[in-house]
Amino acid sequence: MVYKFKVLSDEDDKFYMDIEILSSQTFYDLHDLIQEELEFDRSHLASFFVASHSWQRTKEIPLMNRKGKKATKLETMDNAVLGKYVKDAHQKFIYIFDYVNDRGFFIELIETKPEAPGMYYPVCTDFGGDIPSQIGKKTTKKIFDDEDEDAGLLSSRKTVPQLDEFLDDIPEPLDKETEESIKLSMEEEPIDENSIYKEEEEDIDKMENDLEDEGFDLDNVDDIPEDDE
Q1: Is 2-145 a domain of CATH 3.40.50.1000?
Q2: What is the DSSP letter of 34?
Q3: pLDDT tens for residues 143-178?
């Protein structure tokens, strides 16, 4: 016999999974399919709970035995056959995949039917909505609402780099014409040796003329005044 289960989440009313599984298969087979389809990290603990019609948890079926007398008496997923725990046409289970935040899925039997030849079980026959995060804060809102989507888009956009305040005074790059003009103005003018010599000669001529005006005979060396010590 094949059980068809509907998997729902209280965090996103659009999320669902339809799973078909043999009554002779185990809760571990169901757990393994859910983890694989949702690409969850399999290193985390998980448990199924048999639930009442009002979704009250009763018997636990853990992934593995934990410490404590009560825990060691529990039947683990790999030993718990589904047919043993399905007692109602609308049998309910709760699947906890996030122990820390007590988050999980609601699973309800919605149909029983004969096994289809050539079909591999368990199998996910239908799926919808966004996958809830495996680890996270428990919430009754949708995992991805419009605001979260906008925030995700904004965070993925490239932002323009901002200069630090102390860099605000950095001047704009010079254009080529201005740069050449400044470069030319900073270069030293070439030295004209002939001009320097000419100026020296003019100074000497002026000095000689002044001495002659004062009555000195420049042809007589003795008449040239000596510098005062």
Answers
A1: no
A2: H
A3: 334 444 333 333 333 333 334 444 444 455 555 666
